[in-house]
Specification:
156 residues, alpha+beta, 2 domains, six-stranded antiparallel sheet, 4 helices
């Protein structure tokens, strides 16, 4: 009887040791891979945009600033991404954002009947209810935006 208990104890100890080894191996693999927080999730609204940008390693600050552009129906919230201003237009419906996006010419120089005089190169991105406008040429920021939202749909 004692021998059965010893065998059972050794068996359960070896199972426990094997499980511990597997867990340690998983932890090592996980440490080498990007954290699950860095996996891109769909950008649905402003809060998920900010989370995804931060997951890409960007420093993001949501400001209290709003900008009304005469060619869009909603005002933009300004976020600073790595020190650069990005205008984020958030619509109540994805369909409304799509209608607005369709009014923007491929080069971004005409929106509906408006011809804005940009102070820098315009870059337009869209994801569901959001349209983003970045004016500038910071290639690092453009790569982050592209990695988060996909290719720009209009602009330089």
């Amino acid at each position: 009887m004692l021998l059965k208990w010893i065998v059972l104890l050794l068996f359960s100890t070896s199972l426990s040791l094997a499980q511990s080894t597997r867990n340690r191996h998983r932890a090592q693999l996980s440490a080498r891979r990007p954290h699950s927080a860095s996996k891109a999730r769909p950008v649905k609204e402003l809060s998920s945009l900010i989370k995804n940008l931060r997951a890409k390693g960007a420093t993001v600050v949501l400001t209290n600033e709003k900008v009304a552009q005469p060619f869009f129906f909603v005002a933009a919230r300004i976020i600073n991404v790595n020190g650069e201003s990005v205008q984020v237009f958030e619509y109540a419906q994805a369909s409304a954002a799509a209608v607005e996006a369709n009014r923007i010419s491929p080069n971004g120089n005409t929106i509906g009947t408006s011809k804005p005089s940009w102070m820098a190169t315009p870059h337009f991105f869209k994801s569901r209810k959001l349209i983003l406008l970045y004016l500038g040429d910071n290639q690092t920021l453009l790569r982050i935006l592209q990695g988060t939202l996909g290719n720009q749909f209009a602009g330089g």
